[in-house]
Amino acid sequence: MHDEFLCHVTAYGMCDGRRIGVPLGTYRAPTLALALWWLRDRASWIAERLDPTPEGPAFPAGALVPVPDTVVDVPALLRGWCADDARQELVADELAGGRLVRIAASDDTTEYELLAESVDAVRMQRVLPVLVVPVA
Q1: Residue ranges of the alpha helices (H) in 51-106?
Q2: Closest of 57, 52, 9 to residue 29, by C-alpha
Q3: Least trusted range by pLDDT, from 61-70, 93-102, 118-127
Q4: Which of 69, 78, 108, 113 is least crowded, fewest Cβ atoms below 10 Å from its Cβ?
Q5: Could you tell me the pTM of the whole model?
């Protein structure tokens, strides 16, 4: 069983013809349960910022307008992932097995990526190539 997990959230977009990543957060989770909680929390955080409540006091009347149905609804995708127990269980199984997990959703301009991986698996990947180098 893997004990610690590195979690990252990044937004990617195009700038001057290049793909640019903007880190939105990193967390070193001491348990699998906390890694899953943090990923769900960050997905919800992104969704709320992309799709806030229009009646909120932070926005003047008419400042927010609905997007056309042709635009991918990233907030709905992220909220759906957070609420899907089967997909949460799949992520837990993958992380517990030492595999990298990537959850991504994108619209016309930006890709939002949530990553998590076992600290033990990362350490093993760094050491493994050294162990298999031929002597001769």
Answers
A1: 74-83, 85-96
A2: 9
A3: 118-127
A4: 69
A5: 0.81
